[in-house]
Amino acid sequence: MMNAKTLSKPVAGKAGSSRLSVLALAVSLVATGCASLEPTLPQAEPGIRAEWPIPPTTEENAAATSVESPEEAQAVADIGWRDFFADESLQELITQALENNRDLRVAVLNVERVRAQYRIQRADRLPSVGVTGTVQRSGGDNNVNPSELYSVELGVARFELDLFGRVRNLSEAALQQYFAQEEARRSAQLTLIAEVANAYLTLAADQERLKVAQETLKTYEESYQLSKRRYDLGALSALALAQSEAEVASARAEVARYEGNVAQSINALNLLVGAPVAEQQLPDGLIGQVTGLAPLPAGLPSDVLLRRPDIQRAEYLLRSANANIGAARAAFFPSITLTGNVGFASDELSGLFNTGNRLWSFIPQVNIPIFQAGRLRGGLDVATANRDIALAQYEQAIQSGFREVADALALTQTLAQQSRAQEAVVEAARRADKLAEARYRAGQDSYLVRLDAQRVLYEAQQGLVAIRLAEQANRVTLYRVLGGGWQEKTQ
């Protein structure tokens, strides 16, 4: 790199070779680079722990599958989405979404746009050479025959010698913007995969809730038929029969509500996939293992968080803002632009390229800022403030990511405990319902006891579906916040 002290030295050479020396200096400046006024990139200080607050066990078999080496721990965080989602129908839907989703398509096109903008900015680092051909006709009242002048010139227009790195820093800032946009595309892809998985799980849970409601409705209808026969025989009061009929109507309303939820969930899944989902691709209730995530090792470092696309995007934006400071600093120093051309000019087209018609011009221009009324200082202050904002946003992205992972880890253990406890509640409620039915048929308990047992069983079953959905959705969340989901297969 060339520094300011080097630039202050006179160029040695004989008078006859001055043009060659100037040309050599210009080529050297273009080829070897220039001084850079970009400051050192500041270090982020997010203030997070070195390791995740992982519970003693994130799964029942955590001890059996714990990972000790950092290489294996990194592989756990980098598992591909096709290996993470065990359901084949869900894998097919994710593949279709990656091809058809319009939001992801916009993210890809944004990357193409920013890449083109970078190519435009990068072009300023090299001279723009062009050929110009002109024909000039002039005349007046006293001229019988108008004059003509033909010219063809090959030239360079206002090429800036990047002595202090202004153009290079602007190009670097555009490059970092391109990298940031690419990370934004990866983040959009990760979010899309997680949204498709959550929509699929929500649809499966709604279908499971619908099944529970339909089974409950069937039970209520059977109870109503039994109550009606007992009422006809005079063994049941009109009040008890009316209560049974009300429970049937309430169950039908529940079935209708969950049918509407299923239809809405299908519509949401169609929107994410970008096309109508085939019926055979729809889930059949929340059955089986939809997702799979191995227990995290106790020694997993928190720096794996830095691989998340949104955090990497924030880092690239910080680098871009830092490069803009270098460009703002370079604006305080003189700038040199070169304009030159060579060619031919003749008043006759047939003799345009004769030897005696050659012409050339060389126009260097030096711009020295003296008084700008605070414009340059204001531009530097703006660039510095933008860099500090980008640094704060980068640190905030790291902190937010750490909290998201910590929350998902905390829920991993508690949701597993809730699921086991709710399963016990369902079993106990089912036994109580059977006993209440038997005692009601034997005439030992009133119909109110029977209704209460059915209601408790129904609420317990719906609660179990909700907890299972939350458990599966939390797995998807943990996978997403660890940065997984943008790779198809495990690397």
Descriptive report:
This protein is an alpha+beta fold. It has two domains: 33-125 and 162-333 and 378-481, Up-down Bundle (Outer membrane efflux proteins (OEP)), CATH 1.20.1600; 128-161 and 338-368, Outer membrane efflux proteins (OEP). The protein has helices at residues 4-7, 18-32, 70-77, 81-84, 88-100, 102-123, 166-232, 238-273, 309-330, 375-441, 447-481; strands spanning 129-138, 147-161, 335-346, 358-367. A four-stranded antiparallel sheet has the order 1-2-3-4, covered by helices on one side. Strand 1 and strand 2 form a beta hairpin. Helix 9 runs antiparallel to helix 10 (375-441). The longest helix is centred in the middle third of the chain and has 67 residues, at 166-232. The chain is elongated. It starts with a helix and ends in a 10-residue tail after the last helix. The model is unreliable at 1-32 and 57-74 (pLDDT under 50).
Compact overview of the structure:
By secondary structure, the chain is of the alpha+beta class. It folds into two domains: 369 residues, Outer membrane efflux proteins (OEP); 65 residues, Single Sheet (Outer membrane efflux proteins (OEP)). It has eleven helices and four strands; from the N terminus they run ααααααββαααββαα.
